[in-house]
UniProtKB/TrEMBL annotation:
It comes from the Bacteria. Keywords: Hydrolase, Metal-binding, Zinc. The keyword Mitochondrion does not apply. CDD domains: ATZ_TRZ_like (cd01298). InterPro entries: Amidohydro-rel, Metal-dep_hydrolase_composite, Metal_Hydrolase, MTA/SAH_deaminase. GO terms for molecular function: deaminase activity; hydrolase activity, acting on carbon-nitrogen (but not peptide) bonds, in cyclic amidines; metal ion binding. The keyword Protein biosynthesis does not apply. Residues 54-418 form the Amidohydrolase-related domain. This is Cytosine/adenosine deaminase. Belongs to the metallo-dependent hydrolases superfamily. ATZ/TRZ family.
Length: 445
């Protein structure tokens, strides 16, 4: 059984039940699982020096649109609010196909890996020109990241009062049929699963009430999780009040979209009553601070959510609205925004790091991930704090969010090394970037 010994770390941040931080410690990996954490461990397998490094659990990204990596910094969408931004981008996305979806996912996942991410979700809600969710699943397998793709959908086009063009919407019966197909083909409910599939109608303004309800019934029949956008900005709230006669939280509850098997993206405009509903029902939230800033959506009430007991995780959101995909940077932004809103003591570095690791595992229902303790899967990030970014830092753990680095030295997923010495080991990244840029130029033309 293959062993890897991570040896002599400056600090190991365990995120265990007492949030221990162990100085000068080792982590022993055996067969993709953490076998031991402590000092003086030995192994006859691979030894990786962590001298001058902080070791953390792998970061977990709970909201992304990987296909958008091809449409960063698009003119016309750079200064728009959510609905105007979508109207600008929809016609461009309609020109994509299977190769675009696959290559953009490869690029986006590589960017995440280099920022310490070992597990990413993805919300793919459009399938132009024969694209399928399988295209992104193949990309995650190529790079070696743990993956939680969700079969998204849009069914209400412009002609029926929705936002997306009619060319990007699907028949609701076909949507449900394909949800069943991808779950049966790819979902793995076992501990240590590399792929789990979720069901994710795009948003209340792009699908019908019937599809939201049917999707919830299907997901629970299949034992998979549910995901959508909710309460993202003031436009979103106004749409819900006008079309449904209630706020988004009530809409979600009425249609079966609350519970431990549900997580909603953004939730910038949740009311105190909705926060209470999410806490009572164990509903999770994917907080996307950089995207919320970029689109002018506002600052999500993360402090109030956490204080009420809501499960909160991080998401980088799509790279057309962030426009980066750096998860450790997202943790820093989450911390800073709560301080802007609530004061300098509103969120500590360590709480933000907990949200980025253990918080993500809790939101995605992964009790096998999120901390470094025996029996957990061996997903971990190794950060070199001996360089320029952290020079002079008295607290190397705090340095991760207060100064840097923002790129990992090593990354392990299920005990397999995906990043070594700051470089992706599992694919020819320069070649992927070259093809990615060629496809982006084609879309721009």
């Amino acid at each position: 059984m293959r062993e890897v010994l991570i040896q002599a770390a400056e600090v190991v941040v365990t995120m265990d039940g007492t949030r221990r931080e162990l100085k000068g410690a080792d982590v022993l990996i055996r067969g993709g699982v953490i076998a031991a954490v402590g000092e003086g461990l030995t192994s006859e397998g691979q030894v990786v020096s962590a001298k001058g490094c902080v070791v953390t659990p792998g970061l977990i990204n709970t909201h992304h649109h990987l296909y958008q990596t091809l449409t960063r910094a698009v003119p016309g969408g750079q200064d728009a609010l959510l609905f105007g931004w979508l109207k600008t981008l929809y016609p461009i996305w309609a020109q994509m196909g299977p190769e675009e979806i696959h290559v953009s996912a490869l690029t986006g996942l590589a960017e995440l890996a280099l920022s310490g991410c070992t597990l990413s979700s993805d919300h793919l809600y459009l399938y132009p020109n024969g694209a399928r969710l399988d295209d992104t699943i193949a990309a995650a397998d190529d790079i070696g990241l743990r993956f939680h793709p969700t079969r998204g959908a849009m069914s209400i086009g412009e002609s029926a009062g929705g936002l997306p063009p009619d060319s990007l919407v699907e028949r609701e019966a076909a949507i449900l049929e394909d949800c069943i197909r991808v779950i049966d083909a790819h979902h793995d409910p076992r501990a240590g699963a590399m792929v789990r599939v979720g069901v994710a109608p795009c948003s209340p303004f792009s699908v019908s009430r019937e599809l939201m309800r049917d999707a919830a019934l299907l997901a629970r029949d299949k034992g998979v999780m549910l995901h959508t956008h909710l309460a993202e900005n003031d436009e979103d709230i106004a749409y819900s009040l006008h079309h449904f006669g209630c706020r988004p939280g009530q809409y979600a509850e009425d249609l079966g979209w609350t519970g431990a098997d549900v997580w909603h993206a953004h939730c910038v405009k949740l009311s105190s009553e909705e926060i209470g509903l999410f806490a009572r029902s164990l509903t999770g939230v994917a907080h996307c601070p950089c995207s919320n800033c970029r689109l002018g959506s506002g600052i999500a009430p993360v402090r109030a959510m956490r204080d009420a007991g809501v499960k909160v995780a991080l998401g980088v959101d799509g790279s057309a609205s962030n426009d980066a995909g750096n998860l450790i940077g997202e943790a820093r932004q989450a911390m800073l925004l709560q301080r802007v809103q609530n004061g300098a003591d509103a969120m500590s570095v360590r709480e933000a790091l907990e949200i980025a690791t253990l918080g993500g595992a809790q939101v995605l229902g992964r009790s096998d991930l999120g901390s470094l303790e025996p029996g957990k899967r061996a997903d971990l990030a190794i950060w070199d704090v001996s360089g320029l970014e952290a020079a002079g830092a008295w607290d190397p753990v705090a340095a991760l969010l207060l100064s840097g680095p923002t790129r990992v030295k090593h990354l392990f997923v299920e005990g397999r090394q995906v990043v070594a010495e700051g470089q992706i080991t599992t694919l020819d990244l320069p070649r992927v970037i070259e093809r990615h840029n060629a496809l982006a130029r084609k879309l721009a033309r």
